Amino acid sequence: MLTIRQITEDTEAVIRGLEKKHFKNARQAIEQVIEVNDKRRRTQQQLDQNLSEVNALSRSIGMLMKEGKKEEAETARARVSEMKEGNKQLETAMNEVSAELQALLYNIPNVPCDEVPEGKTPEDNVVERNGGETPDLPADALPHWELAKKYDLIDFELGVKITGAGFPVYKGKGARLQRALINFFLDEAREAGYLEIEPPYVINAASGYGTGQLPDKEGQMYHVTEDDLYLIPTAEVPVTNIYRDVILDEKELPIKNCAYSACFRREAGSYGKDVRGLNRLHQFNKVEIVHIDTPDHSYESLKEMIAHVENLVQKLELPYRILRLCAGDMSFTSSITFDFEVYSAAQKRWLEVSSVSNFESYQANRLKCRYRNADKKTELCHTLNGSALALPRIVAALLENNQTPEGIRIPKALVPYCGFELID
Which residues pair with residue 203 across a beta bridge? Predict the structure, then answer.
């Protein structure tokens, strides 16, 4: 979340940033935060003043008793009792106004950095660069859901029987391709200096608030109501929460973690041709990369992460493009985001396979993720994450783009992991 200091010292800049992100009633929201914060400060000052007076009176009681001023001591004791009762009310008021301030801050998104382009919809995103070659498929080329049926790789109907739509069953070489991609992505991350983490697949509410899924995306997560736990939408959440309430040493940064996990998303309201096959699922596999860094170095980390993801799609021999998202198309928590899309030759459309984002101090402030600098001062970290990579649309593009009369060709980089060169 935004810091109070950021809001009070750069009020107009924050409002402009929120308006750039098309956050409704930005000025009203920020003015409300300032008003409630002023109330909190006044209450805290009154409480501090009262506590100081109580302490002074308490010390004086013993002296008055020694001096034989019993009546004055009793008056002071009565005053202390009266003030303590008043302080309880002030403490209650302080807790209430602090909770009100926290709730307001939780519902205000991050502001975009200066490099984020203006815009409101995906059509306003900026193409940074393209790469790879688009295959020239015949007119009768099959989409991946037909290829999956033809080669018995993925059974969507069986998934519906077992669970429901959006939960496919991978079979035979389809399952082996999933495992191959996961291991390939993890090995590439390890070689790039990432420490592998195997996180839980369920989180508590504190973790959801820490990385910003709550309260913004509560309706998009699967909620285990009896235990008040949530199925993770991405490994970003448990991995980043490792550093919740942690003070790191500057020498430890940047921290680079990677993690494979299944991901669970309700995707409420999704329908139509864009959700066919693997295009949009409720459960899917993904390898995530996470950086914890200093403010001075976080944008170097962002460049490194973008280069890492680009290397992956190049090794998979997929045509791709990198988009710099406009302010209106970015996530609630992001300060800047770059999306990777691969071209699906049979569907003749671009499919998003990764988002790489710098959240600056927004998540860290929620998490209380800090570091101690060379001057021994404590500062908020910057957090970053990216998909490296999400499997479903990668698999869709691999199947479609590599179909031949003999079968589906496997990219050279994946052959050692698959154990086969062709799906036939």
Answer: 230
Cβ 241 vs Cβ 364: under 8 Å: no
Average pLDDT over residues 212-220: 86
CB 167 within 8 A of CB 266: no
Rounded Cα distance between 71 and 335, Å, is 64
Q: Which residue has the higher pLDDT, 67 or 121?
A: 121
Which H or E run contains 340?
strand 336-344
Q: What is the DSSP string of 61-97?
A: HHHHHHTT-HHHHHHHHHHHHHHHHHHHHHHHHHHHH
SS3 384: strand
Which residues, in sequence order, are bridge partners of residue 230? Answer: 203, 223
Other C-beta atoms closer than 10 Å to the C-beta of 359 total 26
Question: In which band, very low, low, confident or very high, does the pLDDT at 271 lie, cut at 50, 70 and 90?
Answer: low
- Asked if residue 131 lies in contact with residue 340, where contact means CB atoms within 8 angstroms, the answer is no
Contact 167, 282 (CB under 8 A): yes
For 13, the enclosing helix (H) or strand (E) is helix 11-20
The pLDDT of residue 232 is above 90: yes
